[in-house]
Amino acid sequence: MLGYREFTLRKLASIGPRYLPFADVATKDVPLSRLLRLSLFQVTVGMALVLLVGTLNRVMIVELDVPASLVAIMLALPLVFAPFRTLIGFRSDTHASALGWRRIPYIWKGTLYQFGGFAVMPFALLVLSGYGEAVDAPLWIGYGSAAIAFLLVGAGVHIVQTVGLALATDLVPQEDQPKVVGLMYVMLLVGMVGSALVFGALLETYSPGRLIQVIQGAAVVTVALNLFAMWKQEARDRTRAQRMETELTQSFQAAWRDLVKTPGMVPLLVAIGLGTFGFGMADVLLEPYGGQALGFSVAETTKLTALLATGTLIGFGIASKRLASGGSPTGMARTGAAIGIPGFAAIILSSMGGGVVMFLAGTLATGLGAGLFGHATLTATMRAAQSDRIGLALGAWGAVQATCAGIGVALAGILRDVMLAFSSETGLASYAPYNIVFLIEILFLLLAIVAITKLRFSLSRQGDIAKTRDISSVEVS
Amino acid sequence: MSDDEDKVWPTGLTLKEAEEVHSYLIDGTRVFGAIALLAHLLVAASTPWLG
């Protein structure tokens, strides 16, 4: 009996580690296949973004007859959580775990919230739209449950992306970080484009049952991909676990003050905000602009988005290559913003007689600029982060980036609607409101360039001090 | 049962580590339970199955 028990236990112990979700040793070099696997969390993030901003936006308004303003408010709810990314990142930096884990527990919790939100969402939407007997249900049930569903998904996305990026930064040495950033961005784009196509095809013929299947299917895919992504990524570490237990943790306020004091961090965040806002406003406007100003059909405007994405991909590629071979991230970010300005100018001019070719060239250029800018600023943030406060720095990046992109998209829509209403009264051309928004974008990109130039200037002055004192700072070169 | 905190059991985990893994399981069950409850309530609101 005892012999049998010994035997089983030994067998169990020998097969155990293979089926446990952690790596037993931290390897120095991380193979590409493992990074590819990790980057799958970005696919789920992209999927959630597309489902919220694209698919559900349309389904709620067209098929479910929910008032557009209510839809806008519901879809804006996840933005509320964006600033908390800083706190989430910091908490993961200082997480105390008996397993020595810092990132995996948070990715897991974020995945749970993402899944939970998607699991409830279709029913919440059906109740919100008054489907079946829900017509008689009190209004607050629909409002409340839809809000809960959107908040859960939003919180999950913020947590998974912040902590996932921090884990990726932990895993690779600094010189490989540009490649990882490129990979993460590409996977986000892949997730967004792929899921947009799949959701579009699946919801071609809408029925409430189909809506439930699609959203809950997204929930299951999210859990599956995220589990696969985080499997064995973070090493179990007993010495780190013991350190976590005894270590006094810094307060969030103190850590935040340290981050703000890091040379160049505040101007970098300001530049990220301005640039993201500038590029972000274009996303939702290019398609209707192509339709109204240049008479594109629906199929053609969809190709426009593909062209924009192609430009962005090229931008990621160039940025990955140049930054990995020692280029300066801040310089690259400035180039990106600088490419965006003639891009938007070409888009404006295309409606004033420049023609379709100019419009397409402008679209490609803004895509390219956005790719370069996004990649370079994230790389700059990773490099500026202290090794034990990576989560905090990436949380600050995500908070600024997500907030500004969200506000940009929302404001662009509102501005356009207001000016469309205004121009129908005054008899302005239909493309005029768009051009005003594009002009505002150029202005913000100019401000971003000013911010980056200031940053580079102040850093080159501080560079000498930093070298002697060995202070980590945003890279200057 | 030994009270030695550093003893590694045949699972490859110490007691504390096993408790932490278990806590994730418990948390997950609670969240899934709450989500399932909410989903059932919502479905009952739109297509009641209890009279």
Explained architecture:
The complex is a heterodimer of chains A (477) and B (51). Chain A starts with a helix and ends in an 8-residue tail after the last helix. Chain A has 477 residues and is mainly α. With 51 residues, chain B is mainly α. In chain B, 63% of the residues lie in helices and 0% in strands. Chain B has one helix and no strands. Chain B is rod-shaped. Chains A and B meet through α1, α6 and α7 of A and α1 of B.
Extract low-pLDDT stretches of chain B: none
List the total number of helices of chain B.
1
Radius of gyration of chain B: 19 Å
SS-based class of chain A: mainly alpha
Strand count, sense and barrel status of the largest sheet of chain B are:
none
Total beta strands of chain B: 0
Give the helix level of chain B as a range of percent: 55-70%
Contiguous runs where pLDDT drops below 50 for at least 5 residues of chain A:
none
H and E order of chain A: HHHHHHHHHHHHHHHHH
Distance between the termini of chain B: 53 Å
In helices, the fraction of residues of chain A equals: over 70%
Overall average pLDDT of chain A: 85
Count of strand segments of chain A: 0
What general form of chain B does the structure show?
Answer: rod-shaped
What is the SS-derived class of chain B? Answer: mainly alpha
User: N-to-C terminal Cα separation of chain A, in Å?
Assistant: 70 Å
